[in-house]
Write a structure and sequence with these properties.
Distance between the termini: 108 Å
Strand content: 25-35%
Oligomer: single chain
Structural class: alpha+beta
Order of helices and strands: HHEEHHEEHEEEEEEEEHEEEHEEEE
Number of helices: 7
Radius of gyration: 36 Å
Shape: elongated
Number of strands: 19
Largest sheet: 5 strands, mixed
Strand order of the largest sheet: 6-13-12-9-10
Length: 324
């Protein structure tokens, strides 16, 4: 039996987290649990001791050689991560945001066995803490993605058949970006989960607001999301942990529903004689208001005109009842 003690990293100390910013450290503390199994090679048997109940073997390892191999293995991992870092920067400079995110995330995850260690790396740009830099690059992508919308207010009315298009643009450092997912949601008559659209070659987005619920504070919430750039070969839970604190640009557009207005003109007669009470017109007006509609006093200001013409006539007698 060979025993080897692996030092557990105490995240509360500065030894393991001094190279990481606070949000980076906290993210790993709350979401990432790492363990290390030591595989020891190039050992020699020094002695054997056996009893009727137990068998002991004493091994000896060349300390300098062992740590040299550990360092070499880590260097190879950091070399791969740095290659992802450089390729991600190139993709970012070419405004390929999805590609840059994929490369940065692969680089960061490739280093997960060393997240509890300082990972200083000497590259072509000088020294940097590689895992911290990759993490910050991911956040920088979304910090610089900006969303703008043309419509300051969405108004649904009879004029647009209670349906309005919303136009927007996604930019990265002022440049239009394609392939970015945008989610939007608002209160509807029947509940619906947020929907997603993707920016086109010119960075434009377009979606339609319809079937909205008439509530005082209803609004269209629009924001950038990562739905379109989830990486298939990286554990989803791990990605969610690393991207939980990303800041997404978003907009809230006030939503108004202008219900139709009705002008009611009623000519109600009783046995041929015009009645001033207009009972049917008043009843219809009350019913429309109860349903959230508007009743106008002017034909020119109304969306619809309702004309009521009524009269009663003598229906004779039946089974002792007078009919009208």
């Amino acid at each position: 039996k060979t025993a080897y003690e692996i030092r557990n990293c105490d995240w509360s100390s500065d030894v393991c987290s001094s190279d990481l910013n606070n949000s980076f450290s906290e993210e790993y503390i709350s979401n990432i649990k790492t363990s290390t199994d030591a595989k020891i090679d190039d050992y020699e048997t020094v002695g054997v001791y056996e009893t009727p109940e137990e068998y002991f073997v004493y091994y000896r390892v060349n300390k300098s050689l062992y740590w040299a191999k550990i360092a070499q293995k880590k260097r190879q991992v950091l070399d791969v991560a740095y290659d992802y870092y450089l390729k991600g920067k190139t993709a970012e400079q070419e405004f390929n945001i999805g590609g840059a995110y994929d490369l940065y995330m692969h680089g960061l995850v490739s280093m997960k066995d060393y997240w509890n260690e300082p990972n200083e790396y000497l590259g072509s740009e000088g020294k940097l803490f590689l895992d911290n830099e990759l993490y910050q690059r991911i956040h920088g992508l979304f910090d610089n993605l900006k969303l703008s919308v043309q419509e300051s207010t969405v108004v649904l009315s009879t004029e647009n058949m209670f349906s309005q298009d919303v136009h927007g643009t996604v930019t990265f450092k002022g440049n239009p970006i394609k392939g970015v997912s945008i989610s939007y949601a608002y209160e509807k008559e029947n509940y619906a989960a947020p929907k997603v659209v993707t920016s086109n070659e010119r960075g434009e987005i377009l979606f339609t607001v319809a079937d909205a619920k008439s509530t005082p504070n209803n609004a269209v919430s629009v924001q950038i999301s990562t739905d379109g750039i989830v990486i298939g070969d990286i554990d989803k839970t791990l990605q969610q942990g690393l991207t939980k604190n990303l800041r997404f640009d978003k907009r809230s557009i006030p939503l108004q529903i202008r219900t139709p207005s009705f002008y009611i003109q009623s000519s109600e007669k009783h046995f041929g004689t015009l009645e001033p009470a207009n009972t049917l017109g008043a009843s219809l007006s009350k019913s429309l208001v109860e349903k959230g509609m508007r009743v106008s006093n002017s034909i020119s200001e109304s969306d619809y005109v309702i004309t009521i013409e009524s009269d009663t006539k003598d229906g004779g007698f039946s089974n002792g009842f007078a009919l009208a």
